[in-house]
Amino acid sequence: MRTSEGRRPEGGPGVREEAGPDGEEAPPPVRPAVAPARVTWQKLTLLPLLLIAVLLATWLWFEQADLDALTRNALSDGRVSKALWQHIELTLISTFFVLIIAIPLGILLTRGQVSRATPVVMTLANIGQATPAIGLLALLVIWLGIGRRAALIGIIAYAVLPVLSNTIAGLRANDPALLEAARGIGMSPVGVLTRVELPLAVPLILAGVRTALVLNVGTATLATFGGGGGLGVLITTGITSQRMPVLVVGSVLTVALALLVDWLASLAELLLRPRGLEAGP
């Protein structure tokens, strides 16, 4: 079928945009912006590759190093893996107790009359972190005796503050108009807390948890002075026996574990952040 002269079939390449009221062409439709990926490939790969390279270089150095009998004895029979596993256990257990103490306490301190106790509780939490970790551990050992319990209590007391303060700050930073609107549509106080307040406070809370995790990895090296084990055993053995390879192993593994924990926490911080709080492009 032929079309009339000067016209092209509908949908053909010569079709022009519909003219506006002033004879100008209408602007093209705006396409919705595509949300950027939460986790980029650089975030996923750069730090793990760096840690692998450092650990590989350390292993190659040990392969060609001339180790004496004392050094080999300190690093043999699974002592390194045992110390590493003890360190991971100390970090995970202490972080678990920090979360179940600090987050509920932070929520409680933003509710009604209980909020009046916030200055007192924050002062106590500040004392726990302001006290030198080795001094706090020594006092706990005198009180509780040598063992893992004293080390765990010291690590927990040292790491409560960032999670507690960030929980309180995140809940107090919520817009009162949003909370009033939630109450206005009939939400119960528990519903407002769980569906509005906590999701909005998640970024700050996760930042506090990330800080606490890294603090716990570092503080756990002091657990050896209270009989708690961990990578601090290798570090103190290397210092007291003046064996550099033992000291290097303990130090490198501690640094690598701290960086790995921080990387995993940063991924969790990105993935658990509510999408509604993400900044636009």
TrEMBL record:
Membrane topology value: Multi-pass membrane protein
All residue ranges annotated as the ABC transmembrane type-1 domain in the record: 84-265
Similarity-based family: Belongs to the binding-protein-dependent transport system permease family.
Subcellular localization, as worded in the UniProt entry: Cell membrane; Membrane
Pfam families assigned: BPD_transp_1
Predominant place of localization: membrane
Record key words, sorted: Membrane, Transmembrane, Transmembrane helix, Transport
PANTHER family: GLYCINE BETAINE/L-PROLINE TRANSPORT SYSTEM PERMEASE PROTEIN PROW, OSMOPROTECTANT IMPORT PERMEASE PROTEIN OSMW
Top-level taxon of the source organism: Bacteria
Organism lineage string: Bacteria, Bacillati, Actinomycetota, Actinomycetes, Kitasatosporales
Coiled coil ranges: none
Residue spans crossing the bilayer: 44-62, 90-109, 121-144, 150-171, 192-213, 219-239, 246-265
The name this protein goes by in its record: Osmoprotectant transport system permease protein
Region (Disordered): 1-31
Chain intervals with Basic and acidic residues compositional bias: 1-19
